[in-house]
Specification:
Elements: H1 6-10, E1 14-19, E2 27-32, H2 45-56, E3 66-69
Antiparallel strand pairs: 1-2, 1-3
Length: 73
Amino acid sequence: MSLLTVTEAAAPQFEVRFESLFDAGRAMCFPCDQQGHVDLDSLPMRARNNYLFARAMVGKDYLPPAVRGRNSH
């Protein structure tokens, strides 16, 4: 059994990633749970606005979001 520090246990293990349709390598990533739910209340205002923008631009500027582990870059 491994022990996690409080910081490691509280750190999000997953991210939702919006890849650009037109600029390979450009993406917006946000911490989420395993199902892809983002806690908007915990995001800083700028990140919250970017997340809402990325969601609104799916199919226009971004691919549909994908959920992945935080260490799978």
